[in-house]
Amino acid sequence: MTRAPIGVLASGRGSNLLAILEASNAPDYPARVALVLSDVEDAPALDHARAAGVDALYVPPGPRRARVSPETEARMVEELRTRGVRLVALAGFMRILSPRFLDAFPNRVINIHPSLLPSFPGLEAQRQAFAHGVRISGCTTHIVDAGVDSGPILFQAAVPVRDEETAESLAARILAEEHKLYPRTITALLTQELVFDGRRCLFRPKGAPR
Ligand code: GRF
Predict the structure, then answer these.
(1) Which residues line ligand 1 (CB under 6 A)?
(2) Which of 11, 13, 15, 16 to mutate to test the pocket of ligand 1 (most atoms within 8 A of CB)?
(3) Is the same domain home to 101 and 8?
């Protein structure tokens, strides 16, 4: 089986990267992580990648706090393309990518977010949901667009909020669902055809008549 090379962008702890690396150990997993890029030089995610024998590069993000400089974005695209990457998974990547980067991989830059979007985009989503008093939270995988956590939804997993919950316990239970949802999302994108119905993302067997 040929496994599609994918890229992962991460700024921190890298537990979702680890989940993807672990999933890709299965012989029938359709992806292999070909490159991990980070805007944080000492991100644990880079260590996880290197420990797994995966190319890992620190890409200096430049002077702006929330974005990556155009030069660095161009380099990121080049490093990914050199390795044949067609799918880019953001896993705790804390910067907004420009349309220039996104257009290099149309509808193939994806993200995971720890809430049921469109509720609670942005930072500390689990804490926001907990403080709001929602009874069900969860996580969402989505296509990345030029906004923040605003692109079309791919998959979601629900996590009911228990009476005895704390913000920390909720975040931990959501994270456990993320680790299942992200590898499954990557499998769907690589083995099925993604069809849009407005903003709705539908999956069909490859080559099926429309
Ligand atoms: C996860 O909660 C993910 O949903 C969010 O950032 C966090 C990254 O965690 N986008 P990790 O670095 O994968 O452990």
Answers:
(1) 10, 12-16, 91-92, 112-114, 175, 178
(2) 16
(3) yes
The predicted pLDDT at position 208 comes to 77
Domain end call among 62, 84, 106: 106
Residues 111 and 172: beta-carbon distance below 8 Å: no
Residue with the nearest Cα to atom 1 of ligand 1?
A: 92
Are the beta carbons of 165 and 4 closer than 8 angstroms? no
Using DSSP's 3-state secondary structure scheme, residue 174 falls into helix
Our count of domains for the chain comes to 2
Is residue 142 flagged as an active site residue?
A: no
Please compute, for residue 136, the number of CA atoms within 13 A of its CA located in the half-sphere on the CB side: 6
Return averaged pLDDT per consecutive 10 residues of the chain, 210 residues in all: 95 98 97 98 98 98 94 98 98 97 98 98 97 98 96 98 97 98 98 97 87
CA distances from 26 to 3, 73, 98 (A): 11, 32, 34
pLDDT at 210: 65
Contacts of 132 (CB under 8 A, 6+ apart): 120
119/133 Cα distance (integer angstroms) = 12
Q: Which residues contact 158 (CB under 8 A, 6 or more apart)?
A: 116, 136, 137, 138
Could you tell me the residue range of the domain that residue 143 belongs to? 111-210
Chain centroid, CA 105 distance in Å: 14
